[in-house]
């Protein structure tokens, strides 16, 4: 066993080991496991496993890093956010158990070298995360959980047809073999890739099959929403990307992405609840990344990766600060929250930065990602889609920031910061994209 | 030519004269199963004769439609008699006037005429029956036509005689998927169209009646004609079911053997009566609005296997 | 030839079972219908295993029988309320459902089939792609069952039916590696277990003001 394979394996095993502590201090074990995973994922950049059971390249590294980071942040944030008092749907310990399994299933789908097992991993993410949505049991959260289970699993099942077709065309399901095999342009492969777009697109939030997304994001507890939006959707996108690589059908994917961005921006415009608004913003960002990948152009893919990694931190920050606001105000309505800036300065700062981050404001990493993707769109002659996307990105930008500024500014209300840990985590998460942006400017100075 | 004329005459007269007999046999058998003595098997003939002798009353305000439609409908059923293989398995003189689909549409036409005439009577009960019939028939007639199309797809022709001969000469075609399900659907339609028990209990009580209510305002000779055409309709549908779907064998076409067709058809009908009687005596009548479910099932099967037959060939 | 006929017969019975499930109001009949369907699929798998001398298909058939047939039925039945044979779903309009179902299936399946799947050559049965129609029909029938009903149980049965369609497609076209098929089965089982947690809490699903738009 090479060191690389060992690291990949450990990434999967460590959260599993934390799950063993179910009856005894699982909260602490989860945070420790997440930190160890974070370190391992950084090591993975330099020590990569050879192609065997795992298939890890630098693209995978970025996704693994995202997963472990948000896993770490969410488990720290959960220490204060989730307590036995408000976790009425699940026991607190079960919550942490499921968080660990959720992380394992995502890491598994991202690293495994087999389309069939990738599908199994994506299905496992649904299983492990479904009950997390109903941690705080209300009628709405039960309904949201159910919609999540039934819509996503029905959609992902559809993707299994494409797995069968891939196996039929290539006689194997090994990712590395198929990508390098060269025989691609048959009808069945094209059909397989198109079906995968709808199937895995259910999990990514592609337009006609996105309906579970706002419900699940708005009803789940904030750390879970952060994991959903920050890393679960990108993991599904990663699997789709691996299938897309077999036979890139650019125009279909770009058009679907464009339509989804239009839909997301329109829905986003009239949302009265801030967590739902951020959910639609996730949908918009994911589809922009989908377009970036669909250009199949080094610039576009780089842009998609920049966008995804900055977005995952920004969106995590947005959901953490939403969680703080929800804890201290008790309402999800944008209209009922006013003047946060005086009484909750850290949360307000985190919320402002993350909302600027998710909507793609210049110094943040998301902005550079978006610019690269838009540039790649022009490079592949997707000009009409480019125009539509730009218009609706502006629309979404205005929508989000208008709502957030309404919540932050104004006469101060009777609010209080919920402790120190939760605002701190939110602030950290929302500042990382700034660092990514700065990193981008330093590293890619030549491009600019 | 002489043979042809004889065959035509045989078929027409047999259907015309023997149709009430099967209703009588059915009633008698059913009574025997229910441990009753039951009427004579010739009771339908006595009924018809009695009605023909009685006075005919026409409701006030009804138009010419009410008075003449029974005869027109009777004529339509006579025409159907001449174009589908109900006794003789080879084409007879008038066969060329319509095909399978034409036969199905003529059935629908006769049903429509009777409904229009019943509405014309102005009676509330008749109107209720018509509304029931109309809301069921949109599925029933649709299924009937689709079943005929499905069968004609098997032989790629909509000539019922060809279908019959094809099924006789290819026994394995009788157990193909499409054929089995078309038969099932057609049998369901047969039960509905002839008003058998899971769907309609015969008799003049208004709660469950559908087809019977069309005759509500008729009396005397007009009622006799209407009843006679109902018997013919039952015979025609049942014979199509037997000769084209269920049991196509055993019919002769050459002189003088075609006369044997008459006992053969009677034998086949006894088989069908036996099957229907088992259903009638073991099942309870379903509620009125459940009939729509039943017809939807028949319609679904007919459409689905119509499409399957198209895809599989 | 005779085996072809049997395969068609089993496929058609599976389809009939799908329509049976669609037409039921009572939850128990639906669960039993699902059991019959799984047994029929296992039978198809065993038959093809015998024809092809394939060990994979044999194991697959046994897996279907145990995991789909017995375990899932057991899971669903034990989660039912006490008087389970009386639990039914309100507002099921069978004729309407069947008609819409027909339109949906005609559009979805026959177009997909005639464009793509009719050109596939199944490995399991050389030169006979028309059996592939049945898995597709079953698959879309499952999707339609999920979308047309409001009860939690019905939607689970719809999901299982959809998965059954996939298994049948794999059996008829070409069995995917047994390891993957087994993980798929376990996934579905786990999902049914997870969903049955919700059936206890919430048995029907209506529109909600907070989850709009």
Mean pLDDT of chain A: 88
What oligomeric state is this? heterotrimer
The ordered string of helix (H) and strand (E) elements of chain B is HHHHHHHHHH
Order of helices and strands of chain A: HHHHHHHHHHHHHHHHHH
Q: What do these coordinates show?
A:
The complex is a heterotrimer of chains A (448), B (313) and C (213). By secondary structure, chain A is mainly alpha-helical. Chain A is built from 18 helices and no strands. Chain A has a domain at 248-448. The longest helix of chain A has 32 residues, at 139-170. With 313 residues, chain B is an all-alpha fold. Helix content of chain B is 69%, strand content 0%. The longest helix of chain B is centred in the N-terminal third of the chain and has 32 residues, at 2-33. Chain B is globular, with a radius of gyration of 19 Å. With 213 residues, chain C is an all-alpha fold. Chain C has one domain (2-85, 94-201). The longest helix of chain C has 26 residues, at 27-52. The B-C interface holds B 139, 175, 177, 181, 292-293, 295-297, 299-300, 303-304, 307-308, 311-312 and C 5, 8-9, 12, 15, 19, 23, 94-95, 98-99, 101-102, 105-106, 110, 113-114, 118, 130, 133.
Quick tags:
heterotrimer; A: mainly alpha; 0% strand; B: 313 residues; mainly alpha; 69% helix
Short summary:
With 313 residues, chain B is an all-alpha fold. Chain B has helices spanning 2-33, 43-53, 64-83, 100-120, 124-155, 160-169, 177-193, 220-246, 261-282, 290-312. Chain B has one domain.
What's the helix and strand layout?
The complex is a heterotrimer of chains A (448), B (313) and C (213).
Chain A: H1 3-20, H2 26-43, H3 58-81, H4 92-111, H5 115-133, H6 139-170, H7 175-179, H8 187-204, H9 212-219, H10 222-244, H11 250-269, H12 274-294, H13 298-329, H14 340-343, H15 345-358, H16 365-379, H17 383-408, H18 421-443
Chain B: H1 2-33, H2 43-53, H3 64-83, H4 100-120, H5 124-155, H6 160-169, H7 177-193, H8 220-246, H9 261-282, H10 290-312
Chain C: H1 2-22, H2 27-52, H3 55-78, H4 94-115, H5 133-148, H6 152-173, H7 178-201
Helix pairs in contact in C: 1-2, 1-5, 2-3, 2-6, 3-7, 4-5, 5-6, 6-7
């Amino acid at each position: 066993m090479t060191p690389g394979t060992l690291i990949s394996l450990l990434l999967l095993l460590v959260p599993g080991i934390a799950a063993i502590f179910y009856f005894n201090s699982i909260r602490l074990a989860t945070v420790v496991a997440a930190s160890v995973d974070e370190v391992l994922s950084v090591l993975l950049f330099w020590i990569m496993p050879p192609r065997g059971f795992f298939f890890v390249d630098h693209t995978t590294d970025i996704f693994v890093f995202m997963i472990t980071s948000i896993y770490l942040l969410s488990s720290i944030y959960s220490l204060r956010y989730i307590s036995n008092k408000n976790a009425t749907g699940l026991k607190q310990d079960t919550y942490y158990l499921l968080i660990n399994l959720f992380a394992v299933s995502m890491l598994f789908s991202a690293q495994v070298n087999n389309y069939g097992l990738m599908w199994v991993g994506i299905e496992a993410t649904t299983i492990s995360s479904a009950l997390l949505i109903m941690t705080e049991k209300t009628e709405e959260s039960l309904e949201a959980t159910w919609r999540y289970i039934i819509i996503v699993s029905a959609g992902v099942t559809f993707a299994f047809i494409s797995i069968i077709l891939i196996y039929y065309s290539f006689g194997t399901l090994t990712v590395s073999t198929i990508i390098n095999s060269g025989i691609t342009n048959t009808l069945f492969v094209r059909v397989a890739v198109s079906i995968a777009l709808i199937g895995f697109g259910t999990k990514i939030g592609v337009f006609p099959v996105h309906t579970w997304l706002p419900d699940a994001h708005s009803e789940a507890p904030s750390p879970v929403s952060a994991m959903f939006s920050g890393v679960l959707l990108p993991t599904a996108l990663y699997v789709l990307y691996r299938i897309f690589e077999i036979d890139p059908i650019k125009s279909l994917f770009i058009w679907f992405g464009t339509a989804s961005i239009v839909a997301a921006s329109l829905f986003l415009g009239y949302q009265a609840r801030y967590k739902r608004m951020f959910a639609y913003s996730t949908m918009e960002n994911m589809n922009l990344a989908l377009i970036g990948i669909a250009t199949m152009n080094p610039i576009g893919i780089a842009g998609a990766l920049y966008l995804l990694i900055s977005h995952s931190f920004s969106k995590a920050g947005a959901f953490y600060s939403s969680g703080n606001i929800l804890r201290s105000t008790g309402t999800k309505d944008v209209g009922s929250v006013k003047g946060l800036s005086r009484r909750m300065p850290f949360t307000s700062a985190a919320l402002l930065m993350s909302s600027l981050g998710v909507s793609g404001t210049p110094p943040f990493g998301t902005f550079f990602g978006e610019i690269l993707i838009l540039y790649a769109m022009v490079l592949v002659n997707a000009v009409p889609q480019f125009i539509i996307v730009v218009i609706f990105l502006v629309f979404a930008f205005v929508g989000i920031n208008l709502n957030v500024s309404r919540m932050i500014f104004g006469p101060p209300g009777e609010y209080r910061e919920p402790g120190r840990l939760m605002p701190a985590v939110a602030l950290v998460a929302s500042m990382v994209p700034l660092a990514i942006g700065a990193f981008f400017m330093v590293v890619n100075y030549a491009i600019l | 030519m002489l043979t042809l004329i004889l065959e035509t005459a045989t078929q027409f007269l047999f259907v015309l004269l023997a149709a009430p007999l099967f209703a009588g046999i059915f009633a008698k058998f059913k009574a025997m199963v229910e441990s009753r003595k039951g009427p004579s098997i010739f009771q339908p003939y006595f009924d018809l004769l009695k009605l023909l002798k009685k006075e005919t009353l026409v409701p006030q305000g009804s138009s010419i439609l009410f008075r003449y439609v029974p005869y027109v409908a009777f004529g339509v059923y006579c025409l159907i008699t001449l174009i589908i293989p109900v006794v003789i398995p080879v084409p007879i003189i008038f066969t060329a006037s319509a095909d399978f689909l034409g036969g199905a549409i003529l059935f629908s036409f006769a049903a429509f005429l009777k409904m229009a005439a019943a509405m014309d009577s102005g009676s509330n009960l008749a109107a209720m029956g018509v509304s029931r019939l109309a809301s069921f028939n949109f599925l029933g007639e649709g299924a009937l036509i689709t079943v005929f199309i499905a069968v004609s797809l098997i032989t790629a022709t909509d000539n019922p005689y060809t279908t019959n001969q094809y099924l006789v000469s290819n026994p394995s075609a009788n157990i193909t998927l499409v054929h089995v399900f078309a038969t099932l659907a057609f049998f369901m339609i047969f039960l509905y169209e002839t008003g058998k028990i899971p769907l309609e209990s015969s008799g003049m009580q208004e709660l469950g009646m559908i087809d019977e209510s069309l005759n509500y305002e008729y009396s005397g000779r007009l009622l006799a004609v209407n009843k006679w055409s109902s018997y013919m309709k039952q015979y025609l549908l049942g014979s199509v079911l037997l000769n084209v779907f269920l049991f196509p064998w055993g019919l002769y076409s050459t002189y003088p053997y075609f006369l044997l067709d008459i006992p053969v058809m009677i034998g086949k009908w006894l088989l069908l009566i036996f099957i229907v009687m088992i259903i009638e005596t073991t099942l309870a009548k379903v509620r009125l609005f459940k009939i729509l479910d039943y017809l939807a099932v028949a319609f679904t099967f007919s459409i689905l296997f119509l499409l399957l037959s198209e895809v599989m060939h | 030839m005779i085996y072809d006929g049997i395969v068609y017969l089993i496929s058609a019975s599976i389809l009939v079972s799908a329509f049976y499930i669609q037409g039921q109001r009572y939850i128990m009949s639906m669960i039993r219908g699902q059991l019959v369907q799984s047994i029929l699929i296992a039978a198809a798998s065993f038959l093809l295993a015998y024809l092809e001398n394939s060990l994979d298909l044999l194991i697959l058939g046994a897996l279907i029988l145990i995991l789909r047939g017995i375990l899932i039925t057991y899971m669903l039945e034990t989660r039912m309320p006490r008087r389970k044979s009386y639990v039914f779903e309100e507002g099921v309009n069978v004729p309407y459902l069947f008609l819409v179902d027909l339109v949906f299936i005609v559009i979805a399946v026959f177009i997909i089939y005639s464009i793509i799947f009719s050109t596939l050559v199944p490995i399991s049965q050389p030169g006979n792609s028309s059996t592939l129609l049945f898995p597709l029909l079953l698959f879309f029938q499952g999707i339609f069952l999920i979308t047309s009903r409001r009860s939690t149980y019905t939607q689970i049965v719809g999901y299982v039916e959809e998965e059954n369609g996939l298994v049948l497609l794999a059996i008829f076209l070409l069995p995917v590696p047994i390891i993957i098929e087994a993980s798929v089965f376990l996934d579905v089982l786990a999902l049914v277990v997870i969903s049955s947690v919700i059936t206890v809490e919430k048995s029907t699903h209506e529109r909600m003001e907070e989850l709009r738009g």
